[in-house]
């Protein structure tokens, strides 16, 4: 039987974050609010949990899962190196709606899908998500929806899709507009915009000091 925690209530929020953190540490999935839509998440370093996440969404490893972090400094231990362009984007847009793709540190034992040696990272602008991330460390998180269905904008919409398959639901109220994060690929010689979302291409270009290229 799943448990829903109302994070608008201080005591219930604290209890919910503790329960969700315990679930993540034990390899289980949780539903959490983010600044875009609700997410389904697990321990980024637990390959079995990530497979469970992909299975719950009804999708395969060809669509790899991104990683949410709870602080700027966390990325230093996750990637091969942090170029100046990445640092500038992090300082300008984190926490917020910008995801960056970088080569991941080869020493890390994780399996997020077919990432080709890269990882997509983001720090969300949502207090409940950040509280959980600071308890758990990096989490593999994808939008809370079955493949082909719309992402959940409320905890009730997430429960309609996943039911008791997920044990812990953190209710952070309705999400804002269902606008995806902007994705910038920093794995090559020049930054490439893979997806323009909540952060405009012009805003990214202004921070980088040059017009960002668009994929394709």
Automatic annotation (TrEMBL):
It comes from the Bacteria. One of its GO terms (molecular function) is L-threonylcarbamoyladenylate synthase. Keywords: ATP-binding, Cytoplasm, Nucleotide-binding, Nucleotidyltransferase, Transferase, tRNA processing. It is found in: Cytoplasm. Residues 14-199 form the YrdC-like domain. NCBIfam families: L-threonylcarbamoyladenylate synthase (TIGR00057). This is L-threonylcarbamoyladenylate synthase. It comes from Haloechinothrix salitolerans.
């Amino acid at each position: 039987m799943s448990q829903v925690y109302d994070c608008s209530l201080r005591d219930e929020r604290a209890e919910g974050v503790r329960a969700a953190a315990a679930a993540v540490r034990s390899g289980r999935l949780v539903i959490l609010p983010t600044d875009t839509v609700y997410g389904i998440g697990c321990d980024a370093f637990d390959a079995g949990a990530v497979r469970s996440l992909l299975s719950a969404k009804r999708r395969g490893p060809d669509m790899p899962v991104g990683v949410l972090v709870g602080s700027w400094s966390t990325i230093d231990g996750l990637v091969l190196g942090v170029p100046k362009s990445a640092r500038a984007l992090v300082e300008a847009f984190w926490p917020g709606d910008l995801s960056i793709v970088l080569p991941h540190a080869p020493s890390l034992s994780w399996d997020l899908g077919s990432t080709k040696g890269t990882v997509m990272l983001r720090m969300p602008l949502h207090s409940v998500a950040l509280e959980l991330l600071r308890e758990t460390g990096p989490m593999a998180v994808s939008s809370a929806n079955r493949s082909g269905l719309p992402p959940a904008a409320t905890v009730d919409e997430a429960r309609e899709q996943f039911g008791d398959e997920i044990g812990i639901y953190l209710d952070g109220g309705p999400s804002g507009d269902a606008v995806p994060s902007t994705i910038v690929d920093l794995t090559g010689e020049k930054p490439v915009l893979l997806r323009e979302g909540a952060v405009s291409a012009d805003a990214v270009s202004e921070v980088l000091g040059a017009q960002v290229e668009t994929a394709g």
